[in-house]
Amino acid sequence: MYNKGNVFLVSTFFANLFCGIPMSDELLKSGKGLQAVLSEALALPVCAVDRTGQIVAWNHGCEKISGFEAYEVIRNNSALKLLFPETEEREKALSDFMDGGEKWEWEIFTKDGESKIVRWTPVRLDGTEAGAVYAIGQDVTKEKLVEDALVRSERLSMVGTLASGIAHQFNNINTIIIANLSFALTEPNLDPELKEKIEKAYSAVQRSGTLTHNLLSFSRPSGSSRLACKLDEVVSDTFRIIRKQFEADGITISFEKEDLPLMMLDAGQIEHVLMNLLTNAHDALAESVRKEINISVGRKDEQAFIRVADTGMGIPKASLGEIFTPFYTTTRKRKSETSASLFGGNGLGLSIVSYIIKQHGGRIDVESKLGQGTCFTVYIPINEAEQVAAPSVISGAPRKAVRTLVVEDEVDIRGMVKDVLEGEGHLVDAYASAVEALGVIGTRPYDLVITDLKMPQVSGEAIVEAVNVIPKNIRPKVMVMTGMLSDSREEHLRNMGVSAMLRKPFSLQVLSDTCNRILSER
Questions:
Q1: Cβ count near 378 (within 10 Å)
Q2: How many Å apart are CA 27 and CA 326, to the nearest integer?
Q3: What is the DSSP letter of 200?
Q4: What angle do CA 122, 124, 125 make, to 5 degrees?
Q5: Does pTM surpass 0.90?
Q6: CA–CA gap between residue 417 and residue 4 (Å, rounded)
Q7: More confident residue, 215 or 43
Q8: Which of 301, 310, 391, 478 keeps 20 to 30 A from 107, CA to CA?
């Protein structure tokens, strides 16, 4: 493959390319040969490996891309281990060099621990190093990241559609489970031990509902559901969930907080942010002797902050500007460990974190030192929410018989809503199809219409439009049930006259309270 004609062409190409570069007499007389002179002059990385597997040439381009200077790698039997920590990758690189071929792509690791992808093109040159193979390198890390991002974005588009459908079904399932657990908790003379178990199951399903909501937020990141809540309490709840798991992994985790005012936040998304930062901190402690994480929540001027600091391996300075880029990850450098980790990263987490915080009008700062640790600080503007009194609950049956229309294609949810409302004195007509329900709207004097939004054939929005045709003085109140609404669609529905949005999964108490609240406004 590499005959004298090839050598002549390559040498001529180099000579023409660098004919304007001054070269010292000392270098020309050094006896290294033309290829050595050009190797030093070439801006691109040029290296050579001999048949024993030793690096015998390492120019300025290689020094710049890797951080290792020539004296650190040339004739160093351990040099390849520095660049390729994984034995399998190291053996493959050496094999590629010896076997030739048109081009190779390797993932190398720089002196400061950063991962880079380099594409090498081999050439054979006559010189003093018999049998040495020279190769010209090109840093294609960003190019590969863009290619990977395009491929993954196509996959994520399909996954997002699938996730949305799955999340919708999970919302229905969780609503049914919560309803039945709520019924169980109302049983008289319930055994205290059994009651405690039911309450734990109830709490677990509520957390499942939050995770499902986050899945919907990711698959359709067009808005959030913000309610008045306290940031310090959201973080406290998350800390209680993860504390035992982290301590079981030998990590000391501490929490400091100050009392904060009510803010308009999407608690589920803020929990997602914190869990992701804690996941990264957990991974960063894998090789640390001192395994500590500190979480703090407080206020600085007109901003609330969440700070997560660890004593882990730190982030290379060159990577700090890239960590919020989708699919960029520093955890892939330990493939075997990452695959075995319960908290392995995929390069998406911090980009989602950044998106969520920007949606809340905030920012995220990061400070890191190699070998000393990393500190992420999330800042969110404090727009104090008004102290909203809990909705008054009208106990027992409504003041008068309330005729209610329920439209829900999921049979168990439809039956549950019907049972709860009838138990409170409502006269309930329940339909599985929006098409059927449209046939009775306007023909019966309903006080309240409760409809699911996402249904086959005809959506719940058509139900709302049909209600709006009814004269205003006899028009029923409307409540919609849904897994998730974007801010824009929620505003659209409110402009259409919808009185309340009931997010799945919901408890029986929330259903009852919401119905009584909007009926009391009549």
A1: 25
A2: 46
A3: H
A4: 135
A5: no
A6: 85
A7: 43
A8: 310
